[in-house]
Amino acid sequence: MGHGIRGEAVSADGRSERGIEASHLAGSGRTVVHLLRHGEVHNPEGILYGRLPGYHLSELGRKMADRVSEYLKDQQHDIAAVVSSPLERAQETAEPIAAAFGLNVRTDVRLIEAENVFEGLTFGVGDGSLLRPTYWRYLRNPFRPSWGEPYTNQAGRVLAAMADARELAPGREIVCVSHQLPIWVTRCRVEGKRLWHDPRGRQCTLASLTSFTYEGAAIESVSYVEPVKDLLPVKRSRTFSAGA
Questions:
Q1: Considering the entire predicted model, what is its pTM?
Q2: Which residues does residue 225 pair with via DSSP β-bridges, in sequence order?
Q3: What pLDDT, in 10s, does the model give residues 81-98?
Q4: Can you spell out the DSSP letters for 34-102?
Q5: Which site in 9, 43, 82, 83 is 20 to 30 Å from 211, CA atoms measured?
Q6: Does residue 19 sit within a domain?
């Protein structure tokens, strides 16, 4: 039995908007590119894994990926292509969706996680790397940011990947699996908002869909849905977040 009906669409101010669930506009001539954040990752050590290889979905993350594929089928989305970041967690999230629609997963490196100088380190409260003065110089400019890939670069490459994905199936829908920070700054760029932000305010939960509707080459609307809202783990306090 499918679980698509559990998906909850949420507006920019956090209110539920269930009508967005069926806004895929099949047959309208418009093209929809869905940016899907990957599912939960197995990371018991709390490492900021960034672009490091070897980080796979947890058992819960695989359930999330399956749920998204069921949601897209149940809601009768017209998925014509699935494109993914090259990282394992993204590929593993993309696979059940591609299988559900009889597609192969395409890979686009432009959907990859943001580069980060803290990659491979921990940031737990009381034992994290931010307590070490040697790393403080990387925190001098949160607007760029100074600890990693500029926000403008992230948004630019993801928008370019989306534009090419749109060309794969004009008038239909494409899923692009990426990561929280690149997805969020891309949405901010499209909506005309500042790119620097408090990470705690990102509206991009695990396995969420941020959907961009194109009229020709122009993006005319953005919507957001959380198909796995009931599977999301309880948030834990963190002193730093650069992406995931």
A1: 0.80
A2: 9, 209
A3: 999 999 999 999 999 999
A4: EEEE---B--TT-B--TT-TT--B-HHHHHHHHHHHHHHHHTT--EEEEEE-SSHHHHHHHHHHHHHTT
A5: 43
A6: no
